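Researcher: I'd like a structural prediction for the single chain below. Treat it as a standalone chain; there are no partners to consider.
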Amino acid sequence: MAASGVVPVFDAAAVTDFGPFGPFGPPLGGPQVPCDLASLKEVIRQQRGLVTTQQCLAAGLSDRAIRHRLRTGRWVAVRRGVYQTVPGRVGWWWESASALLSVGSGAAWAFGTAGFAHGLLRYPPRAVHLLVDASVTVEPPGRVVVHRSRHAAARVDDLHWPWRTSVDHTILDLAELGSIDDAVAVLARAFQRGVTTEATMLALLAARPRHRRRALLHDVLAVVSDGAESAMEVRFARDVERAHGLPRGRRQAATAVKGVRLHDVAYDEQRPGGARRAAGAHRGGPRPGRNPRPSERYPGLADGASVLARRRRTALRPRR
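Model: Treating it as a single chain, here is the predicted structure.
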C-alpha cells in the first residue's frame, strides 16, 4: 500500500461491462463495512467504483483525504455523500446504485428500477424508484422516487446487491401501474422467462387484498401460466374463447411445416358433436367450391390441427 494512504482502485480498463451486473449476474450478499484501507478497496470493487462518505470514514480515511481526492479530480461526487472513484463511468447501473447508496441502508430498488433489473421491462424508467420502511423519513435525491411500506423488509431480495424487491413482489408492484395491457405484458414476460409460478403469485396476491388489479390478475394467471405470451393472446383467451364457449386452444404449439414453427394458439379440428376427424378422411377428396382445410393446404399438420394467429417464431431448416 502506498505510504500516502491512497486507496488503490481496480483498473477501469480491466472491467468489461456485460450489462447491469457484469457477466455473471448480480453479486451475492452486500458489501461489508470496511475496517481498513484494504477492505475499503474490496468494497469499492464490489460497488464498481462507487463509495460513500460513511464507508471511507469507517475505513480510517479522513474528511481531508476525501476532499483532496475530490479537489484533484481523482474522485467525483455523483450524489450527496457518494463518490465515483473511476471518473467517467456513467450509465443506468451507476445512476441507480448511487441513488441506493445515497439514501442509505435499508433502501432497495423497487417498481420500474427493480423490474428492469429482473428483466421484466425492456427499458429502464426515467427516475430511480426505491423502497424504504414506513418508519424511515428520507429526503429523496434528484431523479429519485422513494416509496414507503410497512412490508418493505419482507418484500426485498436480501441475497443480491444492489438490494431490490423480489421478482414476485416486483411483478405485483408493476401490475398496479400503467394500463391493463402493461400489467398483463409484465406477467406474461415473467412466465415466459420462468421466474415465477402461478401458485407463488396467487399466494402473494392473497396477502395483498387491496391490490388495485387483484381480480384481473386472478383472471389472467391461468391463461398466462398456460403459455400466453402477450396481452393480445390473453385478451383472445378471455374475450373470445371464454366468452363464446370455444374449446381451449393449445398455446405455443409447435408444428413442422417447412421448418419448426411456434403458434400463439392451435385447435384440434372438430366435427359436429365432438367427433374428431383425421386430415383428408372424407370420401372423394375436397368438395367442389369448398375452401381447402388447413390440413389439406399444409400436409405437415398432424391430426388436422387448425391454427389460429399463426406466427413464425423460429425456423429450424436443414442446410441444403
